[in-house]
Protein backbone atom coordinates (compact mmCIF):
# COMPACT_ATOMS: atom_id res chain seq x y z
CA UNK A 1 0.00 0.00 0.00
CA UNK A 2 2.88 2.38 0.75
CA UNK A 3 6.51 2.35 -0.36
CA UNK A 4 8.93 4.95 0.95
CA UNK A 5 12.30 4.80 -0.73
CA UNK A 6 15.33 6.60 0.70
CA UNK A 7 13.60 9.87 1.54
CA UNK A 8 15.48 12.74 3.16
CA UNK A 9 14.33 16.15 4.38
CA UNK A 10 16.46 18.97 5.78
CA UNK A 11 14.99 22.18 7.15
CA UNK A 12 16.92 25.47 6.99
CA UNK A 13 19.84 23.96 5.02
CA UNK A 14 23.24 25.65 5.18
CA UNK A 15 22.23 27.72 8.19
CA UNK A 16 22.84 27.67 11.93
CA UNK A 17 19.32 26.22 12.33
CA UNK A 18 19.87 23.34 9.89
CA UNK A 19 17.91 20.25 10.95
CA UNK A 20 18.05 16.87 9.21
CA UNK A 21 14.50 15.66 9.93
CA UNK A 22 14.47 12.56 7.69
CA UNK A 23 17.68 10.73 6.93
CA UNK A 24 17.58 8.38 3.92
CA UNK A 25 14.52 6.62 5.35
CA UNK A 26 12.93 3.60 3.67
CA UNK A 27 9.75 1.80 4.70
CA UNK A 28 7.09 -0.48 3.21
CA UNK A 29 3.53 -0.81 4.54
CA UNK A 30 1.40 -3.77 3.56
CA UNK A 31 -2.30 -3.44 2.89
CA UNK A 32 -4.10 -3.51 6.26
CA UNK A 33 -1.09 -2.61 8.43
CA UNK A 34 -1.93 -0.50 11.49
CA UNK A 35 1.42 1.02 12.46
CA UNK A 36 2.12 2.99 15.61
CA UNK A 37 5.14 5.32 15.47
CA UNK A 38 6.99 6.39 18.59
CA UNK A 39 10.10 8.47 19.17
CA UNK A 40 11.48 11.43 21.09
CA UNK A 41 10.90 15.09 20.23
CA UNK A 42 12.47 15.86 16.86
CA UNK A 43 12.81 12.20 15.90
CA UNK A 44 11.03 12.82 12.59
CA UNK A 45 7.63 11.26 13.29
CA UNK A 46 5.41 14.16 12.25
CA UNK A 47 7.81 15.10 9.46
CA UNK A 48 7.32 11.62 8.01
CA UNK A 49 3.52 12.00 8.04
CA UNK A 50 3.76 15.49 6.55
CA UNK A 51 6.04 14.18 3.80
CA UNK A 52 3.52 11.45 2.95
CA UNK A 53 0.66 13.97 2.97
CA UNK A 54 2.57 16.42 0.77
CA UNK A 55 2.57 19.24 3.34
CA UNK A 56 6.13 19.68 2.17
CA UNK A 57 8.20 17.92 -0.47
CA UNK A 58 11.14 15.66 0.38
CA UNK A 59 14.62 16.64 -0.81
CA UNK A 60 15.27 13.21 -2.29
CA UNK A 61 13.74 9.75 -2.54
CA UNK A 62 10.32 8.44 -3.60
CA UNK A 63 6.88 8.02 -2.02
CA UNK A 64 4.65 5.49 -3.78
CA UNK A 65 1.07 5.07 -2.61
CA UNK A 66 -0.92 2.12 -3.95
CA UNK A 67 1.44 1.93 -6.96
CA UNK A 68 1.07 5.66 -7.70
CA UNK A 69 4.21 7.81 -7.39
CA UNK A 70 2.98 10.81 -5.36
CA UNK A 71 6.44 12.24 -4.62
CA UNK A 72 5.88 15.37 -6.70
CA UNK A 73 2.11 15.69 -6.26
CA UNK A 74 0.81 18.70 -4.31
CA UNK A 75 -0.99 18.24 -1.00
CA UNK A 76 -4.46 18.73 -2.50
CA UNK A 77 -3.69 16.17 -5.23
CA UNK A 78 -2.83 13.53 -2.61
CA UNK A 79 -5.92 14.30 -0.53
CA UNK A 80 -8.10 11.86 -2.50
CA UNK A 81 -5.82 9.01 -1.38
CA UNK A 82 -5.53 10.00 2.28
CA UNK A 83 -7.55 10.45 5.44
CA UNK A 84 -5.94 12.57 8.15
CA UNK A 85 -6.61 13.49 11.77
CA UNK A 86 -4.47 16.19 13.38
CA UNK A 87 -3.38 16.73 16.99
CA UNK A 88 -5.51 19.87 17.27
CA UNK A 89 -9.25 18.94 17.31
CA UNK A 90 -10.03 22.32 15.72
CA UNK A 91 -8.11 21.59 12.51
CA UNK A 92 -10.16 18.76 11.00
CA UNK A 93 -13.57 20.41 10.86
CA UNK A 94 -15.19 23.68 9.77
CA UNK A 95 -16.50 25.30 12.97
CA UNK A 96 -19.10 27.55 11.32
CA UNK A 97 -20.68 24.73 9.33
CA UNK A 98 -23.22 22.18 10.53
CA UNK A 99 -22.32 18.60 11.39
CA UNK A 100 -24.11 17.29 8.29
CA UNK A 101 -22.37 19.88 6.09
CA UNK A 102 -18.95 18.80 7.37
CA UNK A 103 -19.84 15.18 6.68
CA UNK A 104 -21.11 16.06 3.20
CA UNK A 105 -17.79 17.73 2.37
CA UNK A 106 -15.90 14.64 3.54
CA UNK A 107 -18.27 12.32 1.68
CA UNK A 108 -17.63 14.16 -1.60
CA UNK A 109 -13.85 14.31 -1.27
CA UNK A 110 -12.18 13.53 -4.57
CA UNK A 111 -15.47 13.67 -6.51
CA UNK A 112 -16.31 16.13 -9.26
CA UNK A 113 -18.20 19.14 -7.92
CA UNK A 114 -21.40 20.48 -9.45
CA UNK A 115 -23.50 23.51 -8.64
CA UNK A 116 -25.88 21.66 -6.31
CA UNK A 117 -25.20 21.68 -2.56
CA UNK A 118 -28.34 19.83 -1.43
CA UNK A 119 -27.77 16.93 0.96
CA UNK A 120 -29.91 14.09 -0.32
CA UNK A 121 -32.19 12.13 2.08
CA UNK A 122 -30.25 8.90 1.56
CA UNK A 123 -27.01 10.75 2.24
CA UNK A 124 -28.42 12.19 5.45
CA UNK A 125 -29.58 8.74 6.58
CA UNK A 126 -26.10 7.38 5.94
CA UNK A 127 -24.65 10.15 8.13
CA UNK A 128 -27.07 9.28 10.93
CA UNK A 129 -26.06 5.62 10.84
CA UNK A 130 -22.36 6.49 10.89
CA UNK A 131 -22.77 9.00 13.74
CA UNK A 132 -24.50 6.33 15.84
CA UNK A 133 -21.19 4.46 15.87
CA UNK A 134 -19.68 7.30 17.91
CA UNK A 135 -22.22 6.81 20.69
CA UNK A 136 -22.12 10.54 21.41
CA UNK A 137 -25.69 11.48 20.46
CA UNK A 138 -24.50 13.50 17.45
CA UNK A 139 -26.95 11.68 15.17
CA UNK A 140 -29.65 13.85 16.79
CA UNK A 141 -27.70 17.09 16.19
CA UNK A 142 -27.09 17.07 12.44
CA UNK A 143 -27.82 20.79 12.07
CA UNK A 144 -25.72 21.89 15.06
CA UNK A 145 -22.66 24.01 14.32
CA UNK A 146 -19.48 22.01 14.82
CA UNK A 147 -17.98 24.90 16.81
CA UNK A 148 -20.43 24.09 19.61
CA UNK A 149 -18.98 20.60 20.13
CA UNK A 150 -16.37 19.64 22.71
CA UNK A 151 -12.80 18.82 21.66
CA UNK A 152 -13.43 15.10 22.03
CA UNK A 153 -16.64 15.25 20.00
CA UNK A 154 -14.89 17.21 17.24
CA UNK A 155 -11.99 14.76 17.14
CA UNK A 156 -14.39 11.81 16.94
CA UNK A 157 -16.25 13.58 14.12
CA UNK A 158 -12.96 14.33 12.33
CA UNK A 159 -12.02 10.65 12.57
CA UNK A 160 -15.36 9.67 11.07
CA UNK A 161 -14.91 12.22 8.27
CA UNK A 162 -11.40 10.93 7.54
CA UNK A 163 -12.69 7.37 7.06
CA UNK A 164 -16.05 8.13 5.41
CA UNK A 165 -14.61 7.63 1.93
CA UNK A 166 -12.30 4.68 2.55
CA UNK A 167 -8.81 6.21 2.16
CA UNK A 168 -5.82 4.34 0.82
CA UNK A 169 -3.96 5.43 3.96
CA UNK A 170 -5.12 6.95 7.26
CA UNK A 171 -2.67 9.35 8.96
CA UNK A 172 -3.13 10.00 12.68
CA UNK A 173 -0.74 12.61 14.07
CA UNK A 174 -0.97 12.38 17.88
CA UNK A 175 -4.73 12.75 17.44
CA UNK A 176 -5.52 12.18 21.13
CA UNK A 177 -2.71 14.28 22.65
CA UNK A 178 -5.00 17.28 23.32
CA UNK A 179 -7.74 15.19 24.95
CA UNK A 180 -8.24 14.15 28.55
CA UNK A 181 -7.40 10.46 29.29
CA UNK A 182 -11.04 9.27 29.34
CA UNK A 183 -11.92 10.97 26.04
CA UNK A 184 -8.61 9.87 24.52
CA UNK A 185 -9.43 6.22 25.23
CA UNK A 186 -12.87 6.61 23.62
CA UNK A 187 -11.31 8.11 20.47
CA UNK A 188 -8.55 5.47 20.36
CA UNK A 189 -11.03 2.60 20.71
CA UNK A 190 -13.15 4.19 17.97
CA UNK A 191 -10.01 4.51 15.84
CA UNK A 192 -9.28 0.81 16.21
CA UNK A 193 -12.91 -0.10 15.46
CA UNK A 194 -13.08 2.01 12.27
CA UNK A 195 -9.73 0.70 11.03
CA UNK A 196 -10.83 -2.90 11.51
CA UNK A 197 -14.33 -2.34 10.12
CA UNK A 198 -13.04 -0.66 6.95
CA UNK A 199 -9.85 -2.77 6.63
CA UNK A 200 -7.76 0.42 6.52
CA UNK A 201 -4.01 0.85 6.35
CA UNK A 202 -3.03 3.35 9.05
CA UNK A 203 -0.11 5.29 10.55
CA UNK A 204 -0.52 6.55 14.14
CA UNK A 205 2.08 8.84 15.68
CA UNK A 206 2.03 8.84 19.49
CA UNK A 207 4.17 9.83 22.46
CA UNK A 208 2.32 7.37 24.67
CA UNK A 209 4.26 4.10 24.94
CA UNK A 210 1.28 2.23 26.40
CA UNK A 211 -0.88 3.20 23.41
CA UNK A 212 1.92 2.34 20.98
CA UNK A 213 2.06 -1.17 22.44
CA UNK A 214 -1.70 -1.68 22.79
CA UNK A 215 -2.91 -0.56 19.36
CA UNK A 216 -1.97 -1.77 15.91
CA UNK A 217 -0.14 -4.81 14.57
CA UNK A 218 3.21 -3.11 14.03
CA UNK A 219 5.39 -0.66 15.97
CA UNK A 220 8.12 1.62 14.63
CA UNK A 221 10.54 3.67 16.71
CA UNK A 222 12.32 6.63 15.13
CA UNK A 223 15.43 8.54 16.13
CA UNK A 224 17.22 11.36 14.26
CA UNK A 225 15.14 10.81 11.13
CA UNK A 226 15.81 7.08 10.95
CA UNK A 227 13.87 3.95 11.87
CA UNK A 228 15.71 2.17 14.69
CA UNK A 229 13.05 -0.42 15.52
CA UNK A 230 10.38 -2.11 13.37
CA UNK A 231 8.49 -4.98 15.00
CA UNK A 232 5.16 -6.68 14.33
CA UNK A 233 3.03 -9.66 15.30
CA UNK A 234 4.24 -11.82 18.18
CA UNK A 235 7.46 -9.83 18.48
CA UNK A 236 5.46 -6.66 19.13
CA UNK A 237 3.18 -8.42 21.61
CA UNK A 238 6.21 -9.41 23.70
CA UNK A 239 7.48 -5.84 24.00
CA UNK A 240 7.04 -4.02 27.31
CA UNK A 241 7.26 -0.37 28.31
CA UNK A 242 10.59 -1.15 30.00
CA UNK A 243 11.89 -2.49 26.67
CA UNK A 244 10.96 0.78 24.97
CA UNK A 245 12.48 2.86 27.77
CA UNK A 246 15.72 0.92 27.42
CA UNK A 247 15.78 1.57 23.67
CA UNK A 248 15.17 5.27 24.24
CA UNK A 249 17.98 5.32 26.80
CA UNK A 250 20.38 3.52 24.45
CA UNK A 251 19.78 6.16 21.80
CA UNK A 252 20.05 9.10 24.18
CA UNK A 253 16.39 10.02 23.76
CA UNK A 254 15.13 9.28 27.26
CA UNK A 255 13.70 12.50 28.70
CA UNK A 256 10.99 13.68 31.07
CA UNK A 257 8.29 13.92 28.39
CA UNK A 258 8.80 10.28 27.41
CA UNK A 259 8.82 9.03 31.00
CA UNK A 260 5.73 11.06 31.94
CA UNK A 261 3.84 9.80 28.86
Short characterization:
With 261 residues, the protein is α/β, with parallel strands linked by helices. 35% of the residues lie in helices and 23% in strands. Helix 5 (151-164) packs parallel to helix 6 (181-197).
SSE topology sketch:
Blueprint lengths: L1 E10 L7 E11 L4 E6 L5 H9 L6 E6 L2 E2 L5 H4 L3 E4 L13 H9 L13 H12 L18 H14 L4 E5 L7 H17 L4 E4 L3 H6 L3 E6 L2 E7 H6 L2 H10 L5 H5 L1
Parallel strand pairs: 3-8, 3-9, 6-7, 7-8
Antiparallel strand pairs: 1-2, 1-4, 4-5, 9-10
Textual characterization of the structure:
35% of the residues lie in helices and 23% in strands. With 261 residues, the chain is α/β, with parallel strands linked by helices. The protein has a six-stranded mixed β-sheet, sandwiched between helices. It has a four-stranded antiparallel β-sheet with strand order 2-1-4-5, covered by helices on one side. A hairpin with a 2-residue loop joins strand 4 and strand 5 (68-69). Helix 3 packs parallel to helix 5 and helix 5 (151-164) runs parallel beside helix 6. The two termini are 31 Å apart.
Structural class: alpha/beta
The total of beta strands comes to 10
One letter per element, helices H and strands E, the order comes to EEEHEEHEHHHEHEHEEHHH
Strand portion, in percent?
15-25%
Which word captures the global form?
globular
Summarize model confidence as the mean pLDDT: 87
Determine the number of helices (DSSP H or I, runs of at least 4 residues).
Answer: 10
Largest sheet, order of strands side by side?
Answer: 6-7-8-3-9-10
Distance between the termini: 31 Å
Tell me about the largest β-sheet. 6 strands, mixed
| Residue share in helix | 25-40%
Poorly predicted runs of 5 or more residues:
none
Amino acid sequence: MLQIKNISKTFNPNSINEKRALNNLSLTLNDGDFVTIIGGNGAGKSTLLNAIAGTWFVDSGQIILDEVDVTNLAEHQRAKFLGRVFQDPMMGTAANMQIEENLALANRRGAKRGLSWQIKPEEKQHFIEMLKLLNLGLENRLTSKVGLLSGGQRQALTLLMATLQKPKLLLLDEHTAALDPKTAKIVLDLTEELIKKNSLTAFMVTHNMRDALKYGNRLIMMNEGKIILDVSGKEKEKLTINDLLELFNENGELNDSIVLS
